[in-house]
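Handout, section B. The chain below has 81 residues.
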Amino acid sequence: MKIGANRAQFYLECLHELRQDLEAINSKLLISSDLPEIILPQLFYNEKATMNKLYYEQTISKEDRKVEKMVKAALKERAIT
């Protein structure tokens, strides 16, 4: 992510609060610095995982579309749709 230190700190604080809110309703928030095309297939492939669908927001930037394409290819490689 290409952001300044202050914005990064703000995001971290927001994510920490969101994680606490989700835990209060017996849910979880996973935060990872791994590449999406690496971590997402691993989440589906793990035998303990309960994930069976992936929802995401489509983007219009060239860089984001490239990542989306790599994630789709990685998921397809593991027969995840």
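Note. Residues 5-24 form the longest helix (20 residues). Compare this with the example in section A.
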